[in-house]
User: Fold these one by one.
Assistant:
Number 1:
Amino acid sequence: MEWNAYLVAIRLASDAGQVHIIERHYLEPTGAAYRYVNIKTCCGVELTTPFDECQQEDINCETCVAKIEKQQAYWRKFWSGWEGKKIIKIFTGMDRLEEEWRDSHRQTEALLQRVQAFHNLLQDCMKHHQPVFTLELPDEVLLKLMDFGSVGEILLCFKVDDESRNNLQTRLGKEGFALLGSRLISKGLLKATDPIFNRRWT
Ligand SMILES: [Zn+2]
């Protein structure tokens, strides 16, 4: 596990024997905690007050560590895969554009907006950190989704663009994919008005 500033080791007074990991943004006053109920540690223990921040060395919840390791492996794969490469291309393209079009705010602005829009999409999807099985799909579909750590990762794959969605469809087959789509809609994760079919990130 790679430790970083986004993670906090935490000991809940209600469960003093265990030191868990929680994502820092949940603890910040302007963070998601104020917008979403049921804030949980990485292993799924509900956040209760009071709690103490601990050292990384104190962490003894193996489920939390395993969860973070799985998440980090997902992102390593993501950034080395075609989605990540596309995003890197946008960012490196932005440097080039800034030089080329230093005088033309409009084009740089448009690109910045795209990067921002992608960032928002990412944030929006990844807040759904509930496990994939909560989508209540048949076992054979769930098995094909084993690489995904959370509902958010699937949602991102679904929303990011056509190519990503097509890959998901190939993986699940048409029926599985249709079922997944209808579950995401019935859980309120996708909406009929969602502009997924118009979004383009590259
Ligand atoms: Zn834990």
Number 2:
Amino acid sequence: MSTHQVTLLPDEEIERNFREIAPALTDAEALFEANRCVYCYDAPCTHACPTHIDVPSFIKKIASGNLLGSARAIFDANPIGATCARVCPVEVLCEGACVEKTLMHKPIEIGRLQRYATDFVLAAGLDVLKAGAPNGKSVGVVGSGPAGLTCATYLARLGYDVTVYERKQLPGGLDTYGMAEYKMTQRVSTEEARAVERLGVRFRLGVEVGRDISFEELEAAHDGVFLGVGLGETGRLDIPGEELEGVYDALYVIERIKSRRWETVPLGRAVAVVGAGNTAIDAVTQARRLGAERVMLVYRRGPAEMPAYEYEYTLAKQDAVEFLWQTAPVEVIADAGGKRVAGLRCVRTEPGEPDASGRRSVRPVEGSEFDVPADTVIKATGQQKMREFFASVPGVGVDSAGHVQVDPETMRTGNPKFFAGGDCVNGGREAVDASQMGKLAAQGIHLALTGERVEFAGARVPLHEETQNLKAH
Ligand SMILES: Cc1cc2nc3c(=O)[nH]c(=O)nc-3n(C[C@H](O)[C@H](O)[C@H](O)COP(=O)(O)OP(=O)(O)OC[C@H]3O[C@@H](n4cnc5c(N)ncnc54)[C@H](O)[C@@H]3O)c2cc1C
Ligand code: SF4
């Protein structure tokens, strides 16, 4: 990576720009909001939540002042409930399904109520979940993102001796290193990880499986293994100039932002972000909030086809981001010295024929080349699948799209000792989906190792009923 440029706004202003967009409710606000809920029978909000948290139950407990019980109902179904309260796309999940959205044109603020209850126990350092009596069996969990943390939690509750292997220095996966800073800081996800640790789960941070410890060693050390390794680096643009200084992977830039050491974030004055998923939106909005003067989102299709959620798009518009629709980069232009980025050469595109999935291809418009001046180019074209990693795990297969193949009920892979879940299986969705898969995997591991079926809160609804509205990061 190249040397960094300085950020443009004074630190105090940046701190202001990164204030939470959905701040905590006051006690009075929470009580008012909880009392608006009509406690639906067979509540649609619970169905819409991929972890099927019993929403009316936790809201009712807030209304009656039982915050501990409320948090217990949340964490029982989703051990990363404090994170999800902040980062879930509630507009298309629980709040999107809330009957009050139709009746009163204003859904109950489920996300912020969930935050209210879970913040209470995190702030008080209370543990609402208990470890089970040791059952003499051991499981290795690879990756400490939402999938790994959740799987580890349920296994500890069943009495397993659990070790989490994490190549990064902090636990939490993308919850810690990827979420837009105005949605959530690292404090929340690392506190949730600490709660998992207090259940007796061991964390081996800075340990990369496949490099620092082999799969054979892992298999020998544990009765079962869960793979929650997520996805890889952002895909290449495969255009000339991609190696120039000033071209970055969006995840690298966002990770620097998450450290809150603003001076280390590699941004210039004019930033071009390639891609239009939620990660691209996170990159453009955060670049603006750091002070980049001109921030452009470059996408080869039109706004109707962008993978980002509508509300994320609205956020970017509010942040005065420029959108270059039907535009594809063909070259990163170098400065006079030949080393640094000076701009992005682009072509206009037009819609082509629909492909097998019904999505229209795009084709370049002849003679439409134009240059966009930029001193920073950020690639946000989606994370790659970790095909090579999985090729080295005996018996674990991936499908043609690079997703790990599992039994959808037990999350068991083709290798009976290995289970998998999260982004590496679903190709990249939301934290809450990864959490649900971690839960199902814990049940599957328990069934495989003991023959006993358990069912944790919110585990029953089959996966295909979930996540219908979800879009890609
Ligand atoms: C920029 C960005 C923003 C996002 N924003 C949102 C959002 O606002 N809301 C939302 O719900 N979702 C969001 N998502 C999606 C969400 O982050 C993922 O769906 C979720 O984190 C997937 O969880 P996971 O556990 O499968 O993988 P990850 O969170 O990626 O965790 C995988 C972990 O495995 C570790 N690992 C990988 N390989 C190894 C190895 N060999 N040895 C040891 N450890 C290893 C990694 O370091 C990582 O910690 C976002 C994603 C991105 C990229
Ligand atoms: S759908 Fe809305 S009103 Fe009904 S239980 Fe859920 S939050 Fe309450």
Number 3:
Amino acid sequence: MFTKHYAPEELEKRVIRKSDYTACEEAFVDTCLPGREGKKNYCIIGAGVTESDRQVVNLREPHGFNVGGVSLPTGKINSLHSHLTAEVFLVVRGDWNFFWGHNGDDGEVVLSPGDIISIPAGTFRAFERVGSDDNFMFSFLGEDDPGHVTWSNDVIEQAAEYGIYLSKDGMLIDTSKGQNIAAGIEVLKPLSTEQLLRYNRTSPAEMAARIYNVNRSAGRSEAFADCALAGGAKQYHMIIGEGAHEFGNCRAHILNPHAFSLGAITAEPGNGFLAHSMNVPQVLVVGEGRWRVTMGQESFDIEVEDTVSIPVGMKREIQCIGDQAGILYQAYGGNQRVTLDWSTEVLEALGTAKDTYSPQPICNDNRYSIMAA
Ligand SMILES: [Fe+2]
């Protein structure tokens, strides 16, 4: 597999630490409304759906999906809105009340640290923080360009009262700050009843089936060839999509296409993934513990809430370090099953050769268990 050469400083830029995340408090039209201000939006990988040209993006390189984050002040709400793609939240700190539906009353659920929720495209959703001031969630949006946010009518109507509009490509125009609606620019209007009725309704049972928590679920100890080797012991969780797996009767918790897969491993110190590469972009997010990621010849130690983007084709080793077990989330670009290309040393330890090694295909029936998003 051809791999571009990366200088150490180029790799260092792909190790995006929690302290590198940069908040934008005016990323969305609703932050100008009373009771909605102060929302912090982060764009870690890709620009996501930010509506502000002042948003800092840590890494713009296309991955097939976007990774961002959000935190909210006490008593504030992230307004009802919908996306054209799947949106997945990984709760890291704080408790959050999610509610959804055209009027936000189709269902609600309180999520806590470790919970992951995949909200179908075309479903109006909102969330508010409950409890602790200390709060943060990662958010994942499918595709390189997830398009623009569709806000509920009350947001568009209230914003207009303040002189704030959104262009059809989803950028803010704040006439109260002297910006003008340029000739030829159309601004978004409230949805008609007919348009609104085209949006999804998602029952509480359907939404409940789209929630996962590694700490409440059994992982699989035999998902990869290296699990049997020294340093490769781990439990693998297939959370969304085909992802990467090699052995065992693996089936993800959520199988409808998201344009990316999401998995997680738990491992004791000294264990993780032995050396391999893959032909899709991979992003790591630390859930618990400390981890060492080696890309080529360079090693980086990462901690809770840090993010790493590993280039396509790069040889990598991933190891839990420190003195406590860890959780590491992995996102992979694309809907396809990901094939691991084990290093020669791993194949030798397995007693096989590269040209004869063949992982067992198990999950190839595409029985999507949840409505398409
Ligand atoms: Fe959203």
Number 4:
Amino acid sequence: MSLKCSVLKSGYCEQTQGFGGSNNHRGLDLVGKGYTLDDIVSYDDGNVLMSVTGYGNGQGEGVNWRYGNFVKIQHDNGTVCLYAHMEYTSVRVGQRVSKGQVIGRMGNSGNSSGGHLHWEFWSKNDYNSNIDPSPYLAPKEPIVLPKPVERDKNKRQFQVDYNDNLRVRKTPNGEILGILNQGIYDFISTETNGGYEWVKLKDGMYSAITDMSRILEVEKEEVQEDLIDEIEMLNKRIVELEDKLSLFEKQEQEYKYFVAPKEDIYYIKLKKNETLKYLRRD
Ligand SMILES: [Zn+2]
């Protein structure tokens, strides 16, 4: 089954031998898609430390007997890749190479029993620091940073005030993935870490709220709904009170006050057209 492949020009390969195992294999053995030969490309940007060419199968001494024609490249983060058993190499020592640049042709030189690439991945420029290249076989997915969006008061958004400053990290305080330009961006949630408030842009992308960025106000829809409910309730109450008031006014019109002209003042409410007889007791 073909695998996505960061070190062959076609971008695909078949793996014929994995790392480790009973013979303590130091790397991966790869051939081109459909068990063909392919051009070999550099895993990443770097500088060519060694480029050995001109050997055939099983010839040479030492590393050349083992590796045949090979290229060793140191990447900018210090890791080293070694590509062995090439038919020929096409880069020279000291040359700067880019990720994906062809560095030679797959072959059968050195201690090899058929055309293939023997790929080693070292954590530093030390023969004994070789690690399993498997995690690096599939090309890294390109990092796509979020793009600025329109202001939307119903969304959680934050604003970046300056270009070329605000970093995007894989985790709060973690690996830097890129820089956000000036603009407004959506975010999912916030969390506090290392003395900063972080906004989560999406899974695996965080930015700190610094003096170059700020969280924008949200008019939450739930709050609006709550307010609408409350207003409806108050309107109902107003209607109820208006009904009561009009009833009261109606009743009020039907009554008039009678004020008794005596020292002990008292009030009697009378209905319209009602009369009160005030009896003087002599
Ligand atoms: Zn091998």
